[in-house]
Amino acid sequence: DTEVTQTPKHLVMGMTNKKSLKCEQHMGHRAMYWYKQKAKKPPELMFVYSYEKLSINESVPSRFSPECPNSSLLNLHLHALQPEDSALYLCASKGNSEPGANVLTFGAGSRLTVL
Amino acid sequence: GQNIDQPTEMTATEGAIVQINCTYQTSGFNGLFWYQQHAGEAPTFLSYNVLDGLEEKGRFSSFLSRSKGYSYLLLKELQMKDSASYLCAVRDRNDYKLSFGAGTTVTVRA
């Protein structure tokens, strides 16, 4: 299995809702990432987990809450979002050893619309 | 932090060659990556350079000059399916942090 799987593919939520995005990989990668991408813009790093510990938080608002229950799973909990949070949310994982140690493998993304 | 610049758009004809330039200014450098992204899809890895020189992979080649803070991606024998956004990304001293340029949209015309 060489894939990163993200669910759901599409999510529409209101500003008062609580929802979660899920990401799963079975490549044994120990680093997992959340990126946010707006239309025609580059992916922006949000969070990095390394060995199930949060290692990077790019000053993301607390309405986004990441969770890494185990080495294969990464969640992004969403609460009280704003319409400007509408974007494609990409999950990625990074290999542990050569030759894949340098490469991020991305999932297909979850397209979020906040009404 | 990172400052990564690449052209916004390029257009080329099927069968031709296109070169996408990327310049970067970083507080630390630990590798440069090129990713391809079709509209609405995830980025997919194309190439990686950490030492100066040219890396060739089939129709795609990537070059790096660390002293100049410069890289290019060369796409040869262009095909219609190569129409996509090409993202230059730089990894800094923190091994886990990868920052992306704004991307170059390449349109291949028949």
Task: Please give a handful of descriptors for the protein shown.
heterodimer; A: 115 residues; mainly beta; 7-stranded mixed beta sheet; 4-stranded antiparallel beta sheet; 11 strands; globular; B: 110 residues; 6-stranded mixed beta sheet; 5-stranded antiparallel beta sheet
Give me the Rg of chain A, rounded: 14 Å
Quick one: overall form of chain A?
A: globular
Distance between the termini of chain B: 40 Å
Class of secondary structure makeup of chain B = mainly beta
Instruction: Give the ordered list of helices and strands of chain B.
Output: EEEEEEEEEEE
Q: Globular, elongated, flat, extended or rod-shaped: what is the shape of chain B? A: globular
Low-pLDDT residue intervals, each spanning 5 or more residues of chain A: none
Total number of helices of chain A: 0
What's the alpha carbon Rg of chain B, rounded to whole Å? 13 Å
Q: What proportion strand of chain B?
A: over 45%
DSSP strand count of chain B: 11
Secondary-structure-based class of chain A equals: mainly beta
Q: Largest interface, by Cβ-Cβ below 8 angstroms: which chains and how many residues each? A: A-B, 24 and 21 residues
Number of helices of chain B: 0
Determine the fraction of residues in helical runs of chain B and give it as a percent range.
under 10%
Instruction: Report how far the terminal alpha carbons of chain A are from each other.
Output: 36 Å
Q: Strand tally of chain A, please?
A: 11
Largest sheet of chain A: 7 strands, mixed
Structural description of this entry:
The complex is a heterodimer of chains A (115) and B (110). Chain A contains no helices and 11 strands. In chain A, a hairpin with a 2-residue loop joins β5 and β6. In chain A, strands 2, 4, 5, 6, 9, 10 and 11 form a 7-stranded mixed beta sheet that branches. Chain A is mostly beta strands and 115 residues long. Chain A is globular and about 45 Å long. In chain B, β6 and β7 form a beta hairpin. Chain B has 110 residues and is mainly β. In chain B, strands 2, 4, 5, 9, 10 and 11 form a 6-stranded mixed beta sheet that branches. Chain B has a 5-stranded antiparallel beta sheet with strand order 1-3-8-7-6, with no helix packed on it. The chains are: A mainly beta (115), B mainly beta (110). Chains A and B meet through β5, β9 and β10 of A and β5 and β10 of B.
